[in-house]
Design a protein that fits this description.
alpha+beta; 5 strands
Length: 220
């Protein structure tokens, strides 16, 4: 399914209730890796030489991953501070989350060759178009494992209130709209086209939350 920018709000609603062309300066891989903050969890799997167009696209995907990581981390930190003030989470746990980079999502960027191998490994039979990339998005632990726990006052009946444990689902429901908003911005302003490969509600807590084929948006 090709995602049109106008569809993002609807997609966010569905996801919540069912389980919402700038030129990039060319740089060496070492320079690029040096620019990505250590606190972010962004990995690239590029098997061969890229064309100038592919390099430009990769730069915009990388920018999306970095900006999304930054806004996710900022929002998560704000929610954790609020939770801590209420005495519902300890400093030890928040320090542990920061130390293990559990306050940021994981992004993995694959070119066509490495992406198709990754999809096959995950059980998907999918051909990535020439000049496109696979972008894997995974929630930070323990959100990836417990995103549906608690927070049902925010998003429908599928979530569960469990007073005796941390309501990770509360954080999930507060944080995901920022991801969808950033995706919409990059659709409209950075000419990125996201096609989600996994179905609505199809997530693997150990591997991925979203699998996107990303290419430059073909506007009519």
């Amino acid at each position: 399914m090709e995602i049109n920018p106008s569809q993002l709000a609807k997609i966010g609603e569905q996801e919540g209730f069912k389980n919402p062309a700038d030129v990039y300066d060319l740089a060496s891989q070492e320079e690029v890796e040096g620019k990505i903050p250590d606190r972010f969890n962004i990995v690239e799997h590029i098997t061969g030489e890229l064309s100038p167009e592919e390099d430009n696209l990769l730069g915009r995907i990388r920018e999306f991953a970095e900006e999304t990581s930054a806004v996710f981390e900022k929002s998560f930190s704000k929610e954790l501070r609020s939770y801590r003030k209420e005495g519902r989470i300890s400093f030890r746990i928040t320090d542990f989350l920061k130390e293990k980079r559990f306050k940021v999502p994981k992004f993995e960027i694959f070119d066509k060759e490495s992406g198709e191998l990754k999809l096959e490994e995950l059980g998907f039979d999918y051909q990535i178009e020439e000049g496109s990339f696979l972008l894997l998005f995974q929630l930070p632990k323990p959100l990836a494992q417990f995103w549906s726990k608690a927070g049902n006052s925010l998003w429908g009946e599928d979530s569960k209130d469990i007073d005796s444990v941390i309501g990770w689902g509360h954080f999930y429901r507060k944080l995901m709209p920022a991801v969808w908003k950033k995706q919409g911005f990059f659709e409209n302003e950075k000419n990125l086209s996201f096609r989600k490969i996994n179905d609505i509600g199809q997530h693997d807590p150990k591997e991925y939350y979203y699998l996107w084929r990303v290419k430059s948006w073909q506007r009519k």
